[in-house]
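Sequence only, no structure available. Ideas?
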Amino acid sequence: MTTIVVNGLPKIGKTGIAERVQQLYRDNFNSDLGVVSLGDTFSKIAEELYGVSSRKVPSMQYNVKQGLRIAAVERVAKNLLREDLDRFQRAVNERKSVVKENPLIIETPITVYEEEGGVPDIVRDFKDFQEFNNIRNIDAMVTIIDSPQSLAGRLEGTTYPYDWFTLLDWEGFETETARSHAKSLSTRHLVIPRHHAELSLLKLIFDIEHNRDPTIVYNARPITDLKDKPGDSDDFLAKKANARSSINVFAENLEQYSIVVVPIEAVNESNIEILKSYERKRFREKERDHTIRRDIGYFVPNSNLVVAFFPYISNFNIEKPFKYESTGTEDEMRNSRIIAKPVVLIVGGEQDKKVFGLRPTAHFTRDHYLFKALGDLENSKYRDDITVKKDLSLLLEDGKPKYHEFGKIISEIYHPKN
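Reply:
I predicted one. Tokens follow.
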């Protein structure tokens, strides 16, 4: 049975994402998928024992809440054991050697702010997950993360802190604690952005169910370079908008070949204006440090390959090609080469195979040339390059896009009807 623990800060949307994965799995794979929320179980026990509604739980004493959290783990563990016994009994009654278990997602925050102080409390100790692991092997721990301003909007009005500085540190602490727990369990730890997290989780579950390794691609792309700036001409603004659209279309096409992880965009200038002037520089510096730790510490190392896409764009005066100067993407590509991570670079125009002075593993001048090569790798320009062919083959399964079964799901997620 596939069991995945999904963690992240409160209000990041773990329950909604897990339930979305559950519905997609039921609709597309003719099977069921279980979702267990330790937070919901915690609230139910609080109501049963103390008659306290979920809205009143935050005001309860810390030691009482920790007792309730332990009780929630014990209840979920007993339910899992009961399900295993029922499954065994069905196998006996039906004279089968085994009755297939459905995949399971256990979702919970690992850290929350419960008491005064600058460091969050670890409310889900390693022993909690060890108890689950003793019953059903945990195949992966997945941390969902988001930008501080998005989190702040959802946490405002709760008992939790929601200033951007604290959220950057808190999310880092949550992620590192999850990574430590996963290492202790000898299981995989992934960090994924909230954006399209349901698709990434669904693919991961599909891979584990089919006993194959997932293919994860970090899709590096320019962000700051393509933001609208004061003084941009209407023509240049239109070109930037077209380039941003091309990046989104490319990511959607890449979804059939891999689990796509994309950068989380930094705070834009209009949002950062709400900070006091003396705080802006400090926040930019702090956010850059966290961005480097996130992208280079989690996204790049956890990926199988990095695909950097720089859509062609002419400068506003049309006299020379637009030159990308993204320091973030440069750091990501440089670090990828340092740790021997394959880098596929897509950049065209007057620029050559290098960008930021770095030569990639494979180079394409346009995104459709990459997909054309993947469509017939044996006859592509890399047919005699054993190393590059091996790297690009990670995106394929029996000559087809590795996640070709997800075409309908990808379209539904990228183009929701409402």
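The chain has a mean pLDDT of 85.
Hope that gets you unstuck.
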